[in-house]
Hints:
Layout: H1 2-22, H2 36-72, H3 85-92, H4 96-115, H5 134-151, H6 201-233
Helix pairs in contact: 3-5
Family: Belongs to the UQCRB/QCR7 family.
Protein name: Ubiquinol-cytochrome c reductase
Membrane topology: Peripheral membrane protein
Amino acid sequence: MAQFHREIGKLFASYSNKITANSPVQYVPSPPTKRKVRRALSSALMPVWFKFFRGPLDRWNLAVMAKYLRDHGLMYDDLYSDKEPVFARALELLPPDIQAARFRRLMRGTYLNHLRLYLPVHEQNYDPFIPYMAPYVEEAKFQLQEEEELLGYHMWEGVWYSGGVTGFGDKEPGEHFLVALPNLYGAGGSPMQAGGKHFSSHAASAARARLATLAQKRLEEAMQQRERQSVSQN
């Protein structure tokens, strides 16, 4: 019997090797080659372009973003939309202290923006570009990839009204009955928004928890009422 299984294994191995050998090689297009004139112009003009135009523009954009973040007491990672599935999963992985600090920064920034005020100067001396969400985003990517590969689970079906879809079978934004009201659940939300009346994944989970608690309470009340009726009849 062992010899039979060994021969069957050899047969399957040879068949697999034959398929692998005959499979087409993946085509990787090579980058287009530049002509001599273009290479010469690039080597002569690109340093000047980056030194006098693109470099100062990038530094100015960075300074403007840093000023905006420091004026409102925010971090750059606070500006990402919590309706995006990967970032929503990363927010669930945050420790309680980091999650509370992020929430307080967002609420403080929203309040200051509403009043057209800024933080005091002595509280603006910090680096707003520290990527504190980076390890949690990477862990969220690994989790979602593992779920998609092993379970056939898609991240846009994980929560209701998140990532531009409702979670009831629609795969892309615009394939549902709420397409006329996209801002209700984050489909048209801007990553620059700090807070807002959006239906987030945390709000959805909290709503489901409240509904489950209410249903359990109603069930217990019905059971107690039935027991009282049975006792009174006896």
